Amino acid sequence: MSRLLEVKSIYKSFMIHHLGKRIHAVNDISFSLDAGKFIGIIGKSGSGKSTILKLIYRTYLPERGEIIYNSERFGKIDLMKASERDMIYLRQYEIGYVSQFLSVMPRTTAREIVEQSVLEMGKTQEEAKVIAEEALTHFDLDPGLWDNYPATFSGGEKLRLNIASAIVKKPRLLLLDEPTASLDDASKLKVRKAIEKLKDEGTTLIGIFHDLEFMEGLCDKVFDFQKGKCLEGVGA
């Protein structure tokens, strides 16, 4: 089993200027992940769980540490030192990110958002149309919404659209920031099935969850942010 990701002694803090105070969000966190595996991250709100995903996606830069990713194109690369051009490539072709919030270009319909994700992977317009419709159907987005702008969508609809647009790219590494936060049980089941399919096809995943029941049998291991270590016999 090949190692896909190694997070080594990462530190990240934020300066709250109006309070004159520095907040330590991630303090000496280390873990590793083999290709095709799924690690779930747990911990109380505000403990820095989302920050670690943003560090891997390089939305943030740490003060110290390394994040070594075994890229299909670049080989082993420290994401903290990668060029902006290389990170743009990795985000487009290898590393996906699903947040709790949908951020898209204005006047872009739900159908166009998912189709664009497919087109970025080199598919034809016709292939993109078929794949997008399959994804939108799987996540129970009403066909009447497909050609509407997501600004009018509910929180749950936006989240399902966000997941659909990330999953159709079948990334090598997928980062999930509470992907079931505002979903009902039926929608959670759809997300679980999509994650299981991706994992079966070789995608490596890191997910933040408050729903421990959802994680059961899905994650290969669980990392407790408070304890700074992986828990044995949990999640798998």
UniProtKB/TrEMBL annotation:
Tagged with keyword Disulfide bond: no
Residues annotated as domain ABC transporter: 5-236
Pfam families on file: ABC_tran (PF00005)
Source taxon at top rank: Bacteria
Keywords: ATP-binding, Nucleotide-binding
Family designation: Belongs to the ABC transporter superfamily.
Protein name as annotated: ABC transporter
Organism (species): Siminovitchia terrae (Bacillus terrae)
